[in-house]
Structures are given as structure tokens and as C-alpha cells.
């Protein structure tokens, strides 16, 4: 937020002289720029350019630097000429211009709709400038451009110093060293150099502070008495800003209090905390500005001095430049002048990737040789930089960026980093020489001498002159020199030299789309000229901005998805900031327990401790304090067992009752109550149960007996869990001893899943605070209703809004407006949604896209407009179940409402709201888990049934295993058409990368075998993508073709039942074998192309395993929402299922566990038992070591399908698409078919 002074809104243009107004052209004398003052009516009543003016503009010179806070426009008086939208450029000198961008990155200003109304635009952040230029974009289609303007603001006091790259300012302290706990340093600077020190100071004890420009960004190095940093050879800076070498003013401010630091550059703030224990910054003798004086103190690292201007430099309230100008003795100024020299470099901007070019005459010297030099900067990885026709014809020289490399049949790496790069290209004798950034040159040998002919084309080429496949260059160029003559770009702009198309002159109009970084959860941002993308690898999140967690929020959620006991990553706040943590989910009981262990699980023996020197043990959990709080808060119940075995070791002092031992809760607060009691009661569980060994005491240990006894209890007050530290203070007497054990934190239940409210009046609603959803939001909930329509939730702003509603019995609609006009996404179901059954809705909106998911129906997705408004600005309360107008209210039940990972407590709010009640009636509205393993509970008039169509299990409650025995000749192939179009509709590289980032697979199955190698499961497509799970010989995975992951070294071909879970999102792969820890892998899967289909495209080990087949039993096979093995048994007549060899239904899972002890025994017995378990086993192979290899190779094939330009919405790949075992599927299309081979 920017606060302007109350008096900084005065008119600045009305009193300016005639010479302050200039323009690109004028229709006639009466339409000149001077008549463009607001409300002026004389002559033509405003400015209008010539009809032939290709790049019209109106310029205002404020005569001195001013602070501008607003601009206003009118059309030409009493006419049909006005400007409806425009750009605003500003400059200190009138030569080098910068385009003003609003807070959300928008460039366009709204103009007029008639000739008389004044439209004022307040600037979201003020600019300090002398020159303003209005560039019309759109105007009245029934008239022409007409403009009258006013500028609002106030005068601005400026203290400027000019540094020439060798100069600096030294501010000397009054004492030998200065030690501060608080610092505020602020300045403005501008430079055309990407490197240079702005501030430096250091002290004898190793403290230092350095602020410097590095690669066009601002780096801050700060050390407060941290010896590790002092002696480290590599100092790590905090970095803010981008493109700061653009010759425009940038503001910087450092605010430090103790170890807390804010570094702000142009309204972008980075908050951080310094390392080490130091609280103060100790600097000796002096601070230097503009460079580091030589020779430096020991440890000083060499950097370039700053070359440019610094303005209004303040150190802790001291005006450094003012002291220097007045030649105060504490300031030493070397070669510093106090006026800012005008910039010498003028750039031009290439705007279009299809049509921009700059044509300049070659004017080759008499020798026939030619040289070309220029500097460029860009974000794009591809683009044509230079094209030259050569003699003898038809030779041609082309210099282009290709895949981020510079190519002239040779290359140089990484030139699309946004920095200026200097290129020198020369032809001499029989060589063409290319040099980049002063590095050693590369040469191309020629067969005969060549010389340039015709024009040199920079950045692109007209289609009539050349046929080049490479896209045109988008970026900036400057210092263009041909045959050692510097090109005057002003002459090009004025039409006196060369030709051009789609260029902006006197400006480098580049935008850093990764500043601020809109990728969430620490994801890496990369960009091109027109867009940015996020790399979610290793973050645990997915989506266009890495907003969505790939993990469930609780063990309860994993249980509902059909998972079994094991180690899992849970993300307790979903898309919130906390991140995932690994826990153990125990699902063997009726309750699902979340178990978090700590670093001291073994019993600890304590002796020789006293209240003055107690024994202290700290407990560290595999989760942060915030994650622990979220897990405990979201659970229904938590507990932690504390066992205290004692011999002459008391818990409380028997004289005054003060504690001798205690524990600290998760906040670090001291607690002296023990298991079984509420806080504040200093007793043990034996007192509650009335079975203490001596009823005179409230704890067994307080009897102070010579014999061993114990006080064991369960801590269950959630607000205090888990135990963070235990203190034992009474084992220093003769014979005193204690042994304690603190168990793992155990929680069960997920309060959010069944938190529900029932709405039974159309005018009723629940209200909550305004959604905090400016840049990203995700909303998810379940509903059931019999009503044909109703609003689920709504939040409004002044103009913006967001709404999710049931718009008809079969359609859910997600609509919003962030300033670009209303956007609407709808998902239509082929079955009614008002069927009194639970349905799932998830709506998401971020700066890249919006999406809507309903049940397992295909995901509906809408791309955000390029360069549109980004922020959703809401101001009213959030209404759930209705609207502020109390119309179109929802009738029915809503449960598990979450927004950005935060659960809304519907039940609590419903208790105080008329027309709404807590909970929801019905059999399927509680946490009783009536249906298991992804089974769906269906309400009936007199009970319920379980729909197991999407579960790999069967039975009345979806808990009966579906197992099949295989012999060597048996296999099952399951084929179906995917109901999504993303892989056919997208052909660009960016789209392919986006589809890859959203790609997701969830697989789970159990198996029993004694064979290796063995093919267990293969999923493949006709585009040669596949994931295969095989049993392979340990150490035999030496082939490099696929990506191979080995999650366990154990022998899995041991005749026992093993459960495998595989989960992939984009580049992240997670594998769990039985109940072992979850293994995570990250691979940058390359977009490879395969020439042939079939088994030739598989790895050698896969082909070998496939040739052996599989002898054993597979059970409960699940792929996303498909249960192919179960479908094979229940739909044998389907054309989509191919069964080869005998297929025998079995119950091998239960039998395997009951006979596992026999399988480790006698050879003959083992063979016999396997025959029973697996069905047909003709031979038994014993294995010494066998490992599981999950072989994942993703092969992508580009498609060139053109998209309709009018298509704004697309169906996308849905991770969980509705596949039903009834197999009501459309005809198969070859390019859109997956096969599941078992």
C-alpha cells in the first residue's frame, strides 16, 4: 500500500508553457500539443495527431522532477474524437522511457467514452519523473484520437550523487566502531551496469553488510557475529528485484531490528532472519557508498564499484549526500559529482514474435569485410537476432537463439536470462567470427570470401525478404554498430534511416513475470516474454502455480481412499503454507490412528539429578511446531503415553506439593499434571482410579518406596500435546533411580471430513470473514440436496466476486470476476446431482487458470487472459448456503468445506443461525465408515447400500478382497478410452510441459509369488508412454533407457503377500512396499520420441520379465479409479477386456498370511502350498535375493492439432475421472487409448 501526502494532488500541467507540450505529429496548427490542457476550448479544443501517424504520442515536460500521483484525460472539445485507452510512459531526460505498470502488472489505462467527461486515474504507486508520454491505444471508432490531459502531484526534493565506477563516498564514524541493534538505510539509484556495490561496511569481529547490484538484481550480504558465515568461503546473499540495470530509478530500503531484516526494492519486500546469535551490527571506522575502498580489510571480497546515480541516500536518518555536498568532515567524497549525467545508451524493444524487425543498410567497406556489434536482452529461449544476405548469392548468414543457445552453426549457452549480452560478428578473409560477452571467439571457416549485400535484418525479417522458421526476437537491443559505425536509432524512428515494424524506441520495455514469484510453496519460476511457468518438482505440490498438495490431509482421508496401514505424507493444511510431513497411519483398528514418533523412543535411565541440576530431555518430532498444531487441532482426539518407573524418586515434594519433575507442552509451557488428569491437577492416574499403592499420596512414586513402582498414564488434553521436553529432578539420593518413556503422539479422527450443516430455509445462510484469495484460492466441499438449484457460497467486492452454485439439477457453475469481466465454468453431469447423495465439488482460481471438478467428471478448465487483472479484491463477508440478497439459497447439506487448506466450522456457526442446523441427517452422513476401500455410501429410504464400482474390493461394504491366480500363460488386458482431450488438443512445448505437470497416476495392488523375474503390472499408451512394475534380479538393472527406481532391497518373491502403492504427480514419484517408509523420487522426464510401438519400445529388463509371465496371485488391483482385475472377473464378455489363458478367482491374500511360516520351511511343502495358493504352479524357483524395480519411462509424442482461436475453455485431463465397471464407454480411438496389462 502506498500513502501519498495529503497535499500531493495539485495540478502540475495547467501552468506549463507552450514548449512543455510535444507530440509525434498534429493534424494542423489548431490541433497542436499545446492545446491539450484539460478543459481547454480554444482552437480545435485539444490535440489530434495526423491520420498517417503510425506511433502517435503526446508528451508533457514538467520542467523539473516531480512526484506524480494521478493523471486525467478528456477528449477534444465538442467533437467525436477521444482516446478510450492509453499507455503511460515516463522519463527523467525525455530520451529513455519506462512504461508505467499498475500494482497487478497491467499496463493499460482506461480513457474516455465521450469528449467532455474527465476520467482520472490514480497511480497505484507514485512516480518521480520530469517527462510523461501518453500513448493512445484505442479511440472512438466513429471519430479519431483527441486528447486533453492533466497531471497531478507535488514537488520533490532530490539530493543526487553521480558515481563514475571509480568513485565512492565514505561516511566516517565519530568513534572507532559503530554498534547498532536497529538500522534503516534507504536510497534510490539508477544505472546501466548490472554489477556494482552500493553500500559496504565491516568490523573486526567479522560483522559485515554489503548491498550490491549483481546480474541486474540487488544482493544483500549481512553477518551479525556468525562465525560460520565469517569463515565460510561462500557467502549467500538475500536477493530482491530484477532488471535493475535499465537506467531508471529504483528505490531500495533496508530495515533491521536485531536479527529481523526487511529488504525492499520497488515495493517488493523480502523478510528474513540473520543466522548466528548476534543481535547487533558492529562496523569499524566507516561505511562506504558506491564501492569498496582498496585495500580492504581481511576477508573483504572484491566487487565492482557502482556506476550510475544515487539519490536521497539516508543512513539512520542522516542525509549522506547532503553532508557530502556541504563538505562536512565526516564525509570523504572521491570523484563524486552532484548532478546526474544524462544516459548515453538508447534501446529499442521488439514487441512481436511474428512480425517485429529492424532493417538497416549494410554499407560494406571497400575491403568486402563487415562487422556487426550489438547488445540484446530477452527472456525467450528462441528468436532470430540477425539475418544478412551474402555475396556470392544465395548465401545467407543467420544468428539466432535456439533453445537458449546462440547459434551461428556454433553456440553459446544461456542467453535468455534477461541480462544484456554483447555480440560481435565479423567477416574477415575466409572466416566468420562470433564473440559473446567478450569471451574467446568462435570461428566458421569459409570456402570463399563473402560480403554483405542489401539490408541487415535485426530481430526478424519481412516475409517477402526471407523465409525463416525461427520466431522473431522479442526483447531489447542497444548499441547497434555496423562496420564500426554506431547506428542512431532516433534516425530510424524518424524515418531517416532503414525500416522497422512492431518496435518501441527509447525504451527497453521488458517485464519480469517472475517478480514477484507467483509460484507457490517454494517452486521455481521460469518465463518467456509473454508468460511464466512453475516447476513444482520436489515441492509436494502440483498445478499451474504449485498450489495443490499431492498428499491427503490426514490418515482418515487415506483410509477413505482405500489405503491400508503404512507410512504416508500428510499435508494438514492442504494448499496452505505448512507443507507435508511423514507420519505412520495405523488402520488396523476401527479408529484410524495418526502416529508421530520422536527422537527418544527408547526408555531413558536417570540418576544423580536434583532440582538444582535436573535431567532434561528434549523431544524432536518429524514435524514443525505449526504442523504439529494443525494435526492435533484437526483430530478428534489425541493422546501420548508417559511411563515413569521409579525407585525413591518422587514426582512431587511431599512437604509443599511443589513438582520435582515436570514436562513442557508444545508451546514450551511447564506442566506438572500426569496421565489421566486435566490441567491444573497435580496428580497421577492411580489417584483417579483409586489404586495408588499408598492412598496417602496421589502418585505411586511419591510414596518414596525402595522398591520399583511406576506412574503410567495417558496425556490427552489436546492443547498441550505433544510433550516437547521432560525434566526429572529427584534421583540424587542414595538408591534413587528412575526410568521413563514418552510414547509417540497418537491422534485419531479428522474433524473436517464430517463437519456439516443442513440448510432448510431458502433465505438462511452462514457467514464467515472475507475470503483471503487475492492471487489464488481453492474451495472444496461435499453437498447433497433434492433441490434443483441453489448457491453454495458467494463472496463479493466492489466489482469483483466469486460464486459456486448448483445452477440446474445437472450443472454446477463456478463464476468469478477479477476485473477482466465475468468468467464462468460449468460441469454438466449425465445424471441428476439433486439425488440426495453426496457429491464432491472443487473449484480453484489462480493467476494462470481456473478449474472446476465435480465428482469424477472431467475437469473443466479456463485459462486466465494474458496480461489481465490478477487480484481478486473482495470486501463483503463470505456467505455459505445463500447470498447477501437472501435469494437463490441452497436447501440441503454441505460438509467438509475447505478454502485454501483451512476448514470452516459449519457445525459451530450453524448452532447460532436460524434456518440452519448442525450436522446432516441420513445413514451416510457420519464418520462410521460404512463403506470401505473407496466404496461410496448410497442413501436409501430404509437404509443404505455401498457402491463398490470404483473400488478394487467387493462385498456388501467393499471390504472383500478380489484376487486372481495366474499361471505362465495367463494374462488380463484392460483397454478403455480416456474421456479427456488434453493430449490431442495441445501441441506447443509450453502446453506439453503443462500437461506433464498435471499428469498423475495412483496405483495399488497386492501380490504373492515365488518367481523372478516376473511381470506384475504394466500401463502403456499407444504413444509409447508406460509404467511397469516387475520383480527383477537384484543388481541387474544396469540398462539406462528407462528411469528405474528400486524402493527396497528385500526379497519379495518369498511366497508372502506384499502390498505395493505407487503415486506419481508430474516429476515426483512415490513408492511404498507393504508398511515400509514411503520412498520419494524426482526425475526430469525428457520429452523423447519413439519410432516404433510394441515391446521394442520397452526396456530390456521389462521385455525379459514379460517373456517369463507371472506365476502367482494378484489381489485388489487399483489404477486411479479403475479396478481392472475386478472388471475382468465381472465383465468377461466385454470387448474392452482380453483374457489369455486360465483365470481363477482366489482368496490368496488371506491364505498367504496364514501359510507364510510354512513357505519358509521345506521345499516340497512349499511347492504344494503354492499350488493351493496360486492355482497352477508347475515348478518352484528358490531365490537368494530379489528386489522390486519400479520402471517408469515417459515417452511423449508431439501432436500438431490446431486449436480453434475462439475456444476459450477446454476439457482437461482429470486425475480422478469417472470410470465405472459397467463399462458404458464410447468407441475406442487409437490415439486416446490406454492398455492395462496384468
Automatic annotation (TrEMBL):
The chain crosses the membrane at residues 1170-1196. It comes from the Eukaryota. Residues 160-340, 347-508, 755-920, 981-1148 form the Laminin G domain. SUPFAM superfamilies: Concanavalin A-like lectins/glucanases, EGF/Laminin, Fibrinogen C-terminal domain-like, Galactose-binding domain-like. Keywords: Disulfide bond, EGF-like domain, Membrane, Repeat, Signal, Transmembrane, Transmembrane helix. It is found in: Membrane. Gene3D superfamilies: 2.60.120.1000, 2.60.120.200, Galactose-binding domain-like, Laminin. Residues 510-547, 921-959 form the EGF-like domain. Residues 3-154 form the F5/8 type C domain. GO terms for cellular component: membrane. InterPro entries: ConA-like_dom_sf, EGF, FA58C, Fibrinogen-like_C, Fibrinogen_a/b/g_C_dom, Galactose-bd-like_sf, Laminin_G, Neurexin-related_CASP. Signal peptide: none annotated. Residues 546-598 form the Fibrinogen C-terminal domain. It holds the Pfam family F5_F8_type_C. It is a single-pass type I membrane protein. Belongs to the neurexin family. This is Contactin associated protein family member 5. It comes from Poecilia latipinna.
